[in-house]
């Protein structure tokens, strides 16, 4: 059902510093920051030959990333994202197998302009999983 790893997301307390670290120290290609108010984040993508990393920073007081950073002030891995061909079919199959979909269960448009869903970390070995339709 799942396809390739799309990205690994890292919550960071300072987006400019994290972007500079990956760009200047490791020589990675970095996207421009993108505000996603509906998700409460500002995101930057680190483009790698085989996948991407997503740097996440809180946008607004109700950002889920703010809560994550309150518990992990230095930042850390927030979620992994896998590609799926049909996000609704994947959701329905996962729910039938007992997995919990976060939010209202309906896909939202993510940072790549494609539908995404998040799965409860308690159902996936403590890891927040994002699915993105490709």
Q: Layout of SSEs?
A:
Elements: E1 5-11, H1 15-25, E2 29-30, E3 34-36, E4 41-47, E5 52-58, H2 64-71, E6 76-84, H3 87-96, E7 108-109, E8 115-119, E9 129-133
**What is the end-to-end distance?**
12 Å
Structural class: alpha+beta
The low-confidence parts are none
- Total helices: the number is 3
The CATH class is identified as Alpha Beta
What's the structural domain tally? 1
What fraction, in percent, of the residue positions are helical? 10-25%
Beta strand count: 9
Stated plainly, the CATH topology is called: 2,3-Dihydroxybiphenyl 1,2-Dioxygenase, domain 1
Q: Name the helix and strand elements from N-terminus to C-terminus, one letter apiece.
A: EHEEEEHEHEEE
Mean pLDDT: 96
Strand content: 35-45%
Summarize the structure.
The protein has helices at residues 15-25, 64-71, 87-96; strands at 5-11, 29-30, 34-36, 41-47, 52-58, 76-84, 108-109, 115-119, 129-133. The chain is an alpha+beta fold.
Descriptive account of the structure:
This protein is an alpha+beta fold and 134 residues long. It has three helices and nine strands. A hairpin with a 4-residue loop joins strand 3 and strand 4 (41-47). The longest helix is centred in the first third of the chain and has 11 residues, at 15-25. The mean pLDDT is 96.
